[in-house]
Amino acid sequence: MNETTLINLGLSESQAKTYLALIKGGLMTPPELAEATEESRTNAYTILERLEEMGLVKRGAKGKKLAYEAENPIALEYLMEKRRKEVHQAEQQVKASMPALLNYFYTYQNRPGVRYFEGEEGILDMYRDQLRTAKDVYFIRSDGDKNLLGPKLYQFIEKRHELGLVVHGIEPAEEDVMQYAQENDQRLGREMAWLPRSAYNEPVNIYTYGDKTAIISYAEETIGVLIESPQIAAAFRQLHGIVKIAADELMKATGK
């Protein structure tokens, strides 16, 4: 067996060479391994300590001398599983700390940040970002998300309520969503305004929360853009207030 497989699994060339030498040679002292792998004795000790930390070798004795032997290769599976968990934990930590990091960034850099999402999982992550950011939400919504999200949308509405978020929404006056609003808005802390159904029928939703503005298109390709900019978020909240006034006037004018 050559070293390439082990290197592809994340071992360095020296670590792979040492591990294979131990499988072939059995119990070996660091000086013996240094000679077998053409490493210096100092490097041999360092490599063995790292392999021991990784669970790939264990200490023993050869006479009165310190020696090492290889663990069963199944230890590589445990190592990969451990690394997967560490990567997942690191990913969660990055997501949790992102709002604070971005806020720090925008405090000193006058540049907006833009992230792109696509597909169902990408759009779901945009909704999860509302929960992670945990700021009051302002939105203009079509019914384009129904086919993609279905009941999951109502789960997010409930989770926003559990976090104590106040939600200010504007939607076309569809019968089902108005009935849901009538039955649940007071409990959920939502403040809704309604548009005549013909006034807004593009399958695009816009959400602003904190310093973020999310634009989601549910057309043939489901895509989303998340813009991190205090100025853009503030502008949308102002526009949201203007649209709300216009929506109320339109509903009065149409008698609905």
Describe this protein's structure:
The protein is an alpha+beta fold. The protein folds into 2 domains: 4-73, Arc Repressor Mutant, subunit A (Orthogonal Bundle), CATH 1.10.10; 112-254, Endonuclease, Chain A (2-Layer Sandwich). It is 56% helix and 21% strand. It contains 10 helices and 9 strands. Helix 9 links the parallel strand 5 and strand 6. It is elongated. The N and C termini lie far apart (77 Å).
Number of strands: 9
Radius of gyration: 29 Å
Per CATH, the superfamily of the largest domain is Endonuclease Chain A
| H/E series | HHHHEEHEHEHHEHEEEEH
Q: In the CATH scheme, what's the topology name of the largest domain? A: Endonuclease, Chain A
Give the low-confidence spans.
Answer: none
How many structural domains can be distinguished in the coordinates?
2
The number of distinct helices, counting runs of at least 4 residues, comes to 10
Strand order in the sheet with the most strands: 3-9-8-7-4-5-6
Q: Would you state the CATH class of the largest domain? A: Alpha Beta
Strand content: 15-25%
The helicity comes to 55-70%
Q: Biggest β-sheet, characterized?
A: 7 strands, mixed
Let me know the average pLDDT.
88
| Global outline | elongated
Strand pairing plus helix content: what structural class? alpha+beta
